[in-house]
Backbone:
């Protein structure tokens, strides 16, 4: 029953996204234009630390813009209709899954644009892609829950940005460390940081699953 509800809600999100193509196009344009402006400003980024930091800054702001609409743009009538048909667990899990897929596409485009304009200095591409995949999942689950909280405070986008930055810092630190290892091409993968990243994602998803129903009732 829960799986069918999640499938239905993901299809609903996809249909709504296709109806508002300008929103998705605006986000993609934001990523490409930001990378291009960075290229015009720096021309060539020499140090791996600068390359890495700028990449995650661009991806973080793009993720916030992409996921902010998860609950903030939902009308009360649509939320009430969804409330009568599905469980809160199905709602939050479907939002996380859909936003994760969206961020995977977005991060892939960001990496492609980054490679075309600024260059690719990644030595260990598999590790970087794994970090990017898990980072997309972490950003999605965390920002989706923050979007739900912000929607209960008058659909305030500014509030979402304020709430998300402090709690996303631990996740961002681990992502930057792992991606830096991938750029440097270390012979051995740092399994400790990979384990921490997986645990952070699991904790965020579990907390969202448990706590969202209390938000949903309000």
Residues:
């Amino acid at each position: 029953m829960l799986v069918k509800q999640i499938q239905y809600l993901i299809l609903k999100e996809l249909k709504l996204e296709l109806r508002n193509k300008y929103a998705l196009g605006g986000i993609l344009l934001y990523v490409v234009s930001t990378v291009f402006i960075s290229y015009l400003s720096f021309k060539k980024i020499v140090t791996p630390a600068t390359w890495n930091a700028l990449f995650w800054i661009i991806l973080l702001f793009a993720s916030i813009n992409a996921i902010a609409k998860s609950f903030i743009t939902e009308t009360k009538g649509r939320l009430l209709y969804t409330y009568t048909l599905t469980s809160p667990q199905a709602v939050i899990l479907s939002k996380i899954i859909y936003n994760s897929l969206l961020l995977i596409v977005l991060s892939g485009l960001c990496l492609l644009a980054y490679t075309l304009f600024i260059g690719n200095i990644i030595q260990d591409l598999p590790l970087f892609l794994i970090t990017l995949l898990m980072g997309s999942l972490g950003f999605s689950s965390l920002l989706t829950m923050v979007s739900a909280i912000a929607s209960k405070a008058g659909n305030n986008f500014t509030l979402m940005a304020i709430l998300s930055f402090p709690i996303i810092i631990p996740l961002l630190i681990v992502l930057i460390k792992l991606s830096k290892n991938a750029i440097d091409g270390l012979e051995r993968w740092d399994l400790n940081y990979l384990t921490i990243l997986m645990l952070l994602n699991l904790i965020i998803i579990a907390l969202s699953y448990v706590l969202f129903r209390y938000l949903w009732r309000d």
About this structure: The two ends are 24 Å apart (CA to CA). The CA atoms of residues 59 and 107 lie 7 Å apart.
